[in-house]
Design brief:
Blueprint (H helix, E strand, L loop, with lengths): L1 E6 L7 H14 L7 E10 L11 E9 L5 E7 L2 H25 L1
Parallel strand pairs: 1-2
Antiparallel strand pairs: 2-3, 3-4
Helix pairs in contact: 1-2
Length: 105
């Protein structure tokens, strides 16, 4: 499973952050790794660095599953850690539901 990380110009995409995010995504989706070819991670600061709203960090995830349309989720939180964790949890549930429905058909 390939993990691609994209950031907007308000979030510094360091190598350490890339390794941490990639590892978090791969660990959470490990049981689906044979069915996922790629996960794209998009990290953004919705307020462009302004402090107008405390929940302004967003993580969007898009997973490419074999034989399925891409699955996408997003989660907004006060910091990147919470945004990533929330989005990963949502994606795990979505993949579980999608593959479960396919198995029952």
């Amino acid at each position: 499973m390939q993990v691609q990380i994209h950031t907007d110009h308000h979030i510094e995409g360091t190598e350490a952050m890339g390794k941490w995010v990639g590892s978090a995504v791969q660990d959470a989706l490990a049981r689906f790794s044979g069915q996922i070819s790629r996960v794209e991670v998009h990290l953004s600061d919705e307020n462009g660095g302004k402090k107008t709203n405390p929940e302004n960090k967003q993580c969007r995830l898009e997973a490419r599953l074999e034989g399925h349309q891409p699955l996408a989720v997003k989660h907004t939180a006060t910091n990147l850690n919470q945004a990533i964790d929330g989005a990963v949890d949502k994606l795990v549930r979505l993949i579980d539901n999608t593959l479960g429905r396919t198995a029952r058909v």
